[in-house]
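Lab notebook, bench 4. The sequencing result for the construct came back, and we need a structural model before the next group meeting so we can plan mutations. Quick request posted to the team channel:

Model the 3D structure of this chain.
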Amino acid sequence: MSTQLFNEGATEERAENARLSNIIGAIAVGDLVKSTLGPKGMDKILQSATSRGGDGLIVTNDGATILKSIPLDNAAAKVLVNISKVQDDEVGDGTTSVCVLAAEILRQAEQLLDQRMHPQTIIDGFRLATA
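Done. Here's the predicted structure in token form:
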């Protein structure tokens, strides 16, 4: 007797495809909130999927509010949201900045992967840079 673990129609990704999918998802989240930074930061209009009319509209340029409001199914994108929550809990500010910084680090890692650098070498370089 077999047990079905995944939804019908679920896809499976391995190795390079899974890595790139996660990086792209995290970069997309970083890009989403990046435009809210600074004095010329743009507001975002968020609408609840269950609301109708203007009841569920939120206009904000707060990265933490945006990140809490978007549904995600990408594991790396969820990690960015979690580090943003931890930043808010510990410091109370910088939620957007920490998300954008992490996304940009992943963008640079993606370029190194495109140059066929081994992922462990990239990680070792990041660890060396923060030591």
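The mean pLDDT is 87.
Will bring this to the meeting.
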